[in-house]
Amino acid sequence: MMSTWKNVDNFDKLFIVWAFIFQIVLIVHFAVRKPLFESYTAKFGWIVYALCIPAAIISVILLRGGKSWSFWLGGFLFVVFAVFGYWVDYVAQIPFRNPIQLSVLVPYVFLYLATVMFYWWPIGLLSRPLWFVYAALFVIATVLNITSH
Question: What is the pTM of this model?
């Protein structure tokens, strides 16, 4: 990591730090979602969607900083996912997970995975070891996500 850190510019560092914060927040959220549904998820789960605001700001910084589209696209995808997810979960309150409603579930999962992939894949352009660490975090988040429904 230290050799990677020395070889990247400040925009890359911003991207790496934000990508890892994003994934760690997802892990924590998925870990507490089921056991603390009433006290946390129902009241504060929307905060995960609100993280699209700093994600968008970071994407604008990366875009204006001349970074490749692969580094700034994730934040903008997160905005689309968050707006859709917030609308489905909190505004329309569509129970699409149980019973499964494919017309909502498919775009929801697609937008979620697209967001996560555009934080994970570009890390591989910067550092293969960090890419593997992120892969492990993605697996942990995915297991927790699936088992917390």
Answer: 0.90
